[in-house]
From TrEMBL:
It comes from Paenibacillus radicis (ex Gao et al. 2016). Signal peptide: none annotated. Residues 178-303, 315-434 form the VOC domain. SUPFAM superfamilies: Glyoxalase/Bleomycin resistance protein/Dihydroxybiphenyl dioxygenase. It comes from the Bacteria. Pfam families: Glyoxalase. InterPro entries: Glyas_Bleomycin-R_OHBP_Dase (IPR029068), Glyas_Fos-R_dOase_dom (IPR004360), VOC_core (IPR037523). This is VOC domain-containing protein.
Length: 434
């Protein structure tokens, strides 16, 4: 390594300093006990056109290149073949199946960003080409690891015009949306997987259980074909406070499923003896509630992007969960101030608001929740039903996140076992893990 190259690496700024160390090869990023995203950034920002060039290796998953609001993920923890892209202008998600790189081998990465397109290559082979409007993008460039991957960096170079003055330090990210978890009774996981597979078309992703919130928890990640959404089916062998589930109570949080034809899906449910609500038609929309064998409520809505592949019910995917609230304006303020979510202008309508945030597993800035106004929404008691929303907080931010929740929430559980829960103004439960 040349002296100039070594100096360039040492100029990079770590988001969590004690997770980064200098080695004979360059730098090493690793946190073996936590799931934190560890990365190093250039001290200055760069304008488009610009080019990032790095030589790095991973021992397992997750090498992540960062620039502006975007990132490129290789060896994604859920599927090494899936290249996950957040484009740098707005963080919009674009994915393909060119993400796999060899482990424990040095790889040469190049990310070129021009005003009207971007290109990513690995070892000289193009992995991604994307057209876009990037002329006004400027930001720091970086490289990192995640989900316990060990990433070694031999070189990291950036070519482009630097901005002046330097950007303000990055604010620590608090809450990232993890996944929708559906709890089923102990001993029911296998039959639950069969029910969700047969009637909804979900497929188990073997080897990808849920995060270890508690030693008693087991689960299966279920995915719709062609990346149309996913959820976790989980069960616990005991009921500590954080995982209590009262299956006799109504809930205000439920998952939205997409169907080719809602009325066909409704007829399928009736013909197969599935528990449903009535069929609702209002403001040009048609939907109904479908209940799994354990009382968990799923809302079936009309999809818009089916490619013809679906289960016998015609259900082919899921979209962001719904949270029903009694005062929409108050709830929007609460979710933005407490969880740091942003109101989305696109897709929000009369009586509902879409909220954007960071998806923990791919880093994309996307719509993650839909708040829907219901004037009859009543305050539930503390125990919640089996479908829950989970947010992830990196370990070094956990105490600060808890203090923020305490400030806004009179009802909050103690911080124990790297997790806690609290409630929005309508009693909808927010679960936090680290």
């Amino acid at each position: 390594m040349t002296a100039a190259l070594e100096e360039k690496l040492l100029d990079l700024t770590a988001n969590i300093e004690n997770y980064v160390s200098a080695t004979s090869d360059g730098l090493s990023l690793y946190q073996g006990h936590h799931l934190d995203k560890t990365y190093v950034l250039t001290p200055r920002a760069y304008k488009v056109p610009m080019r990032i060039e790095a030589v790095a290796r991973t021992d397992s998953s997750n090498i992540r290149l960062k620039y502006g609001k975007g990132q490129i993920i290789f060896n994604w923890e859920r599927n090494h073949d899936s290249l996950r892209c957040g484009e740098p202008s707005k963080g919009g998600a674009y994915n393909n199946m060119n993400g796999r790189i060899p482990i424990n081998e040095w790889n040469h990465f190049v990310w070129e960003i021009e005003p009207d397109f971007m290109r990513v290559t690995v070892n000289g082979t193009e992995r991604l080409f994307l057209k876009g409007k990037f002329s006004n993008v400027k930001g720091q460039a970086g490289i990192g690891s995640a989900f316990r991957s060990k990433v070694d960096i031999k070189s990291f170079r950036v070519a482009g015009e630097e901005t002046d003055p330097p950007p303000a330090p990055l604010k620590p990210l608090m809450f990232e949306y993890d996944e929708t978890h559906i709890s089923v009774p102990q001993g029911s996981l296998e039959t639950a997987v069969q029910w969700y597979s047969h009637h909804l078309g979900l497929e188990p992703k073997l080897g990808f259980g849920p995060c270890s919130l508690h030693p008693s928890m087991k689960g299966t990640l279920m995915q719709f074909p062609k990346g149309r959404g996913s959820l976790y089916l989980i069960t616990v062998s005991e009921e500590p406070e954080h995982f209590q589930v009262n299956r006799e109570q109504a809930d205000h949080f439920h998952l939205q499923l997409m169907a080719n034809d809602v009325k066909v899906a409704y007829d399928y449910a009736k013909d197969n003896g599935l528990h449903t609500s009535s069929l609702f038609e209002e403001r040009g929309k048609v939907w109904f509630h479908l209940y799994d064998p354990y009382g968990n409520r799923l809302t079936v809505t009309q999809g818009k992007d089916s490619d013809g592949e679906s289960a016998g019910s015609g259900i082919y995917g899921c979209v962001m969960p719904i949270v029903t609230v009694s005062d929409l304006e108050r709830s929007v303020e609460w979710y933005t101030k407490v969880l740091g979510l942003k109101k989305s202008g696109r897709g929000s309508g009369d009586g509902d608001v879409l909220l954007r945030g960071i998806n923990r597993h791919n880093g994309a800035n996307v719509n993650i929740l839909q708040l829907v106004h219901d004037p009859n929404c009543s305050n539930p008691t503390a125990c919640r039903p089996g479908i829950r929303q989970y947010f992830f907080v990196e370990r070094h931010n956990l105490k600060k996140a808890y203090q923020r929740a305490q400030k806004w929430c009179p009802l909050i559980a103690p911080l124990e076992d790297k997790s806690f829960h609290f409630y929005d103004p309508d009693g909808n439960r927010i679960n936090v893990l680290s």
